[in-house]
Amino acid sequence: MFDNRFIRHAIDRSAENALDRRRFFAAAGVAGASAGIAALGSSVLTTDRASASPAEDGAVSDAAILNFALNLEYLEAEFYLRAVFGTGLTASMTTGIDPQGPVVGGSKVPFKTAAIRGIATEIANDERAHVAFLRSALGGAAVSRPKIDFTNAFTAAARAAGVVGPTGTFNPFASEEAFLLGAYVFEDVGVTAYKGAAPLITNKTYLSAAAGILAVEAYHAGIIRSKLFDKGLQVPANKISDARDSLDGPTDDDQGITTSTGAVNFVPTDANSLAYGRTAERVLNIVFLNPNQIDKGGFFPEGVNGAIVASGNPGSATGPA
């Protein structure tokens, strides 16, 4: 399944120092070509946070990137699963390294239309599968689900965007229209996060997997954007886009579902019709709901798990990739 070169390279990227790598080689049984990805998940390093720490050359490890993505997949999976089924991930899919947290808020959405219910169900199943896939790829190095807050964070986001008034509340589980707006908060962020992370992944197998997830997230984002337009929700959706832009650095990159002339904009791209990306730091600015450099807040009130935990500096040029 995976040959020795794959295992050696994965070990080099996942381990922090030479001793870790020697232990990892021994645990993985590199001499045998049948070691496979399961060996990566059963080594001594998979119980040590160092396995997801920056590599010796200062570059962030592939494991750290995958764990950062896993935090986001936890967020999306819990949102969609609760919206469709009324319950989230099973307990066996939320354990791992670093403190595990509960999910605050979330309930079954009273969908009115079969199409939107079907879309929500398909996305929920996709996001659950993404969590399972990343956890399998990381093995024992996978981080646990951090605390997630859907109640206070969505209201704070809606107030900041002007979707509700300064004392208003926003519950994305109250109706299918609110659900679509809540989903819009996440979907474009997920696409740009995978796009921004892609150049940092060195293992081609992991890169291929990340590209596959990015494509699925882009399908999700396009569907949500089009349904928002169908529902006549251009104004609040564009306000959410502007709010994201105000959080993720000085550049103006986020795009609403319509242009300034009112034309549809279901596929946000740059001048070359390429999807743009965000650095992990800028993604955290959005999910923490704060333009400053912090390590918790918003949807992750106690922070995310893993090695990548801090958002970007205000005014920094570090932004979309």
Short summary:
The protein is mainly alpha-helical and 321 residues long. It contains ten helices and two strands, in the order ααααβαβααααα.
Could you explain how this protein is built, in words?
The structure is a single chain. This protein has helices at residues 4-14, 18-28, 36-42, 62-85, 114-138, 151-161, 176-197, 204-230, 234-247, 280-287; strands at 103-104, 148-149. It is an all-alpha fold. The chain has a two-stranded parallel sheet. The longest helix has 27 residues, at 204-230. It is globular, with a radius of gyration of 20 Å. The two termini are 33 Å apart.
Question: Layout of SSEs?
Answer:
Blueprint: H1 4-14, H2 18-28, H3 36-42, H4 62-85, E1 103-104, H5 114-138, E2 148-149, H6 151-161, H7 176-197, H8 204-230, H9 234-247, H10 280-287
Helix pairs in contact: 1-2, 4-5, 4-7, 5-8, 6-9, 7-8, 7-10
Helix content: 40-55%
Reported for the largest beta sheet, the result is: 2 strands, parallel
Round the mean pLDDT to the nearest integer and report it. Answer: 84
The residue ranges in which pLDDT falls below 50 over 5 or more consecutive positions are: 1-11, 13-54
Query: Beta-strand percentage?
Result: under 5%
Q: Tell the overall outline.
A: globular
Could you name the key traits of this structure?
single chain; 321 residues; mainly alpha; two-stranded parallel ribbon; 10 helices; 2 strands; 50% helix; globular; disordered N terminus
